[in-house]
Amino acid sequence: xxxxxxxxxxxxxxxxxxxxxxxxxxxxxxxxxxxxxxxxxxxxxxxxxxxxxxxxxxxxxxxxxxxxxxxxxxxxxxxxxxxxxxxxxxxxxxxxxxxxxxxxxxxxxxxxxxxxxxxxxxxxxxxxxxxxxxxxxxxxxxxxxxxxxxxxxxxxxxxxxxxxxxxxxxxxxxxxxxxxxxxxxxxxxxxxxxxxxxxxxxxxxxxxxxxxxxxxxxxxxxxxxxxxxxxxxxxxxxxxxxxxxxxxxxxxxxxxxxxxxxxxxxxxxxxxxxxxxxxxxxxxxxxxxxxxxxxxxxxxxxxxxxxxxxxxxxxxxxxxxxxxxxxxxxxxxxxxxxxxxxxxxxxxxxxxxxxxxxxxxxxxxxxxxxxxxxxxxxxxxxxxxxxxxxxxxxxxxxxxxxxxxxxxxxxxxxxxxxxxxxxxxxxxxxxxxxxxxxxxxxxxxxxxxxxxxxxxxxxxxxxxxxxxxxxxxxxxxxxxxxxxxxxxxxxxxxxxxxxxxxxxxxxxxxxxxxxxxxxxxxxxxxxxxxxxxxxxxxxxxxxxxxxxxxxxxxxxxxxxxxxxxxxxxxxxxxxxxxxxxxxxxxxxxxxxxxxxxxxxxxxxxxxxxxxxxxxxxxxxxxxxxxxxxxxxxxxxxxxxxxxxxxxxxxxxxxxxxxxxxxxxxxxxxxxxxxxxxxxxxxxxxxxxxxxxxxxxxxxxxxxxxxxxxxxxxxxxxxxxxxxxxxxxxxxxxxxxxxxxxxxxxxxxxxxxxxxxxxxxxxxxxxxxxxxxxxxxxxxxxxxxxxxxxxxxxxxxxxxxxxxxxxxxxxxxxxxxxxxxxxxxxxxxxxxxxxxxxxxxxxxxxxxxxxxxxxxxxxxxxxxxxxxxxxxxxxxxxxxxxxxxxxxxxxxxxxxxxxxxxxxxxxxxxxxxxxxxxxxxxxxxx
Length: 925
Prior knowledge:
Blueprint: E1 5-13, E2 24-33, E3 36-44, H1 53-59, H2 63-66, H3 72-83, E4 87-90, H4 93-106, E5 116-118, H5 119-126, H6 135-142, H7 152-170, H8 175-185, H9 193-203, E6 212-215, E7 218-221, H10 240-247, H11 258-273, E8 276-280, H12 287-302, E9 306-310, H13 313-331, E10 337-339, H14 349-356, H15 363-375, H16 393-399, H17 409-414, H18 416-424, E11 429-433, H19 434-438, E12 453-456, H20 462-469, E13 472-475, H21 476-487, H22 494-505, H23 508-536, E14 549-553, H24 561-586, H25 594-622, E15 629-636, E16 645-650, H26 654-666, E17 671-675, H27 686-690, E18 699-701, E19 712-717, H28 728-746, E20 750-753, H29 757-770, E21 777-780, H30 788-797, E22 801-805, E23 822-825, H31 836-847, H32 852-870, E24 880-884, H33 888-891, H34 895-901, E25 907-910, H35 912-924
Parallel strand pairs: 1-4, 4-5, 8-17, 8-18, 9-11, 9-12, 10-11, 12-17, 19-24, 19-25, 20-22, 20-23, 21-22, 23-24
Antiparallel strand pairs: 1-2, 2-3, 6-7, 13-16, 14-15, 15-16
Helix pairs in contact: 5-7, 6-7, 8-9, 8-15, 11-12, 12-13, 15-16, 21-25, 22-23, 22-24, 22-25, 23-24, 24-25, 28-29, 28-35, 31-32
């Protein structure tokens, strides 16, 4: 590295296509020599055309800035000379280098030749857990200054610093990791092989540090288990003055909140008396630290772990990463904690090592392997969720998940999941998710037993988690992928490799190939026939489905189960022949090379996957237990049969929940159920009854501080059309107009919450076509790329952003402060009457003589609206408007139930024009 000159280049342009007339408006080159930033070259460039409005906004480069700048023709030779003999670096060389080459060609200058390095490719490998690899995201993550994103000078300097940081990281890797990385680096898209080789040469002169261990030649980070033994126990602070003194250690500007102290006392009382309580704790009182403190003290006092259960792994990680250190500061004790997730969340080092021996890898597989090799030198959990893997790499990730607890002795010593289970016994707190907690019922040896207590946060979601515990999903795409792993006759695929081994060793499998092929053809024919039955189904009397996505319960399809039974019979025959096909190789296993052993192991893995699929088929299509389950299919008419999914889900999880809780109560464990939304006006026990909690268990209600919601206001737009009196298209047009006007009045910074993806998409499409919000950053769930967390991160990065979301954005999303100024609820969040789970529950309630609307649909919608409102005010200094476009909240008798669910905040009914004027006045101030 030290004897080369690296040229880090960034361009700003009028667009992406020089062939269509787009031109450069700024160029910056930062030179790296001897491992340090040396010279810089920066110039505006006159494109000879107007800069588009979007580019002006993005780059803050105006026509005035480039008016007196040279054209590229005037500086082309100078730029080419500067780049001559350098290694070209850019953050996405596909754009910067390609654009530059086109401009050189246009100016009659020879193409640049030399080695190139893409810092996107490099940083993805060396920083495999970064949430995003956009330049402004990765630099923020690493603490690299980037004054003005999308300005060539700042971007080039930030890219140069990113490259140097990556080089520092590269030289910390152990020799064996670098060896495995270098071997694969020749398959990358840019010239990174030299970097890996130079680092490898230096690593060979060093000894391996104690921070790394090795599993079959693969280095991984050493990790130790903390011990929970404490010389003395902290004492629970009953006195409020003591509480304040302790909390001020972590919160220097701590404000006393009576509700927080009362909730803390209630948690301590339940844990110490081994009783059960339900507690609704609103945003703003410091709920998490209020249960973590007594939980930690109780664990240290009893020597038993207290379990904290949340709905998602993300929330579990958030407690571990953000809240636990505060608890340690407050108590002055090393409170130990382990985040424990389902087994398949973790890497199987044995499977990973096995797959490394198989020579044929696609680019996606090679790239993912390289990311994992680096990640293994960092991770202390082995949690695959830490990785940011895209594209085909996800399929590789699925192959290396831990599927079994049967481990070879050397694998057990290195297995992350096994180590975490060990760590649970040495932890004060075990932080997990609801599904993992409920899975304990199916384990021979329970993990969550002999506890110091249990706190179930986001308790209202425990119902959903229990319902999904018995969920089985048939995915056509997933099935075809698994089938393709062992049935593809293509050159270099697994079937051909096993056949070649059988042929060389003259095993029985060599003679059985024809029978295997015949069995597969029979199975595939019957499978395709069954799938055709599902995809062709479209009942004539059916109410028109919204958009291209169609949902039907399987009960509506009068299919002949005999056809589906034949699929299983043929599949079973094929699986038995596939098992026999590799059986003969087992007798020669010790004489096979390591690569050949890996091929046989891979074959057996995919045959087991097929066996699991056969069980899924029986569960979904052939088991008759419609009283307890509902089964429905979903398909997108634009991609048949690829989009076909069939889902079977339990209707009621309360029995499973009580079975688990009764087990804990038998062990005298204190249990706390808590959430921001656990009661509904006029139906306070709606959630607790769904959880199967007896009415004798106290439901405690804690209030937010008196001033907490002072900055909030609810606005009902009274001149919107009645959603039940107009067509959907007319209502969407009215929603579109209201959203555009609201965005312009607030300057963005708002959520628009829908109850259906179809309405979201149509609204978003109309807004995009209108170009009225082209100066705003718009992000839409299901349309913009990225997960919910990724969309949220993008939303926070812009001052003028708008996020369009559906169900998952109504809760569990935190955007404190000025980043969120308003939330628009497009319609009251009722479940669709055609939604399969609602339909099945409604039928069950009707059969029991109950009204499905008042007993289920209404309280569920009220709860969701409360959660939606909760997105707006996350701290006492937050201000914002909760805007409701659905007039049913004022025109229907049940509307008051929604209004009663809001905290004590002003509720106004005004016209759209009046609301827009009020918003403009507020935000202009």
